[in-house]
Amino acid sequence: STQPITDISSPAVDVVTTNVLEGTQAAVHYLYNPLEDEAVSYYYAVACKDASNNVGDPGASAGSVTNTALGIPTISLDVPAGFVADGEFDEWYDSGITPFFLGTADNSWGTPSIVGSVTDDNDLFGTIFLAVDEDYLYVAADVIDDVYDGYQPGDGTGGWWENDVFELFIGFYDQRGPKHVGMMRGDEPDYKFFFLETHAVNDFNGQDTLAVNGDGNYYQEGFNPDWVVEAKLALDDIAFGDDIRFNAVNGMRIPIEPTLHDNDGTGWEGNLVGSPTNNDNAWQTPTVWSSTWIGESSVGVGDEIIPFTYALHQNYPNPFNPITNIQFTIPEQADVKLRIYNVLGRQVDVLVNETLPVGHHKILWNPKNLSSGVYFYKLEAGSFIKTRKMILLK
User: CA-to-CA distance for 174 and 187, rounded, in angstroms?
Assistant: First the structure.
């Protein structure tokens, strides 16, 4: 933790590793920072259990330990100007956005990891760009591949994962404390996307189609050698079930695990992955995923990230029945009012009327006695005033 550790179950405490056997000399803690190398200080604690699974009190370090963290790419909050999903990457390379990369000898996390067999960077190497705004996730992968063997449904080449395909695991939440053991929905939803010659797929949602090749939001082409992917995926379409629709805030730490599959014409040969603990089991558990940040910041106050601007986000779901989630951020302590109005401008509910601390706030609204129709929610915080529209369908 970046703070003295008194409770190892605190969300501010990261779990570096578990089930380390007695006599093991070291447990590796990989240190990362957004974009630039930087000195970071951490406190450490160790909790031991015996053969009967009795867990002792944690032994904590009296002081912090300082080391240099590797600067890694982040998910940019600045979308490349003039983005077009056409397979041309000029807007990405001109944007100043730092791309992720996966190679055989190195990757963005400094932990190159190969599942199966990939011989060298000519055999497979990926440059991957990610950006997000209020409505879309932008994805681009520029792949070096000496033999391209793509996948179309029904082409008789086995499963898509046996072909040259880009796969992206990502969590749309601020990840603190222990990583998820299994895929979760709701407030902390985990996703897996894969990008085929025909369409982009939201795998955990019954392989739902997010975009179709050539529809203006998705492009995939194999040149043999090499291949490219570009996608603009609507955040409203990505969320499903009881997922809270993602609202990106600068400083969020995001679980992520990009994966490149390789087929040189004779069947699947190997994958390039981000995490050294990913043994082709990222689809089972986010515990093996890597991580990055949204924007250019990393740390906050206490357990909370620091939002840098006032913001009122679009409610989710919308339309809704019977409950919707309203989220907003404030960069300083402020007197906050969050009120609901009907189309005639009459106030029908007050959700917040109090002083709130700096941070990201979530409010659930259940309009039990109101009829279907259009409503407006208005946030007043300090000098900031913002109104958005939502639709109740019963």
Answer: 10
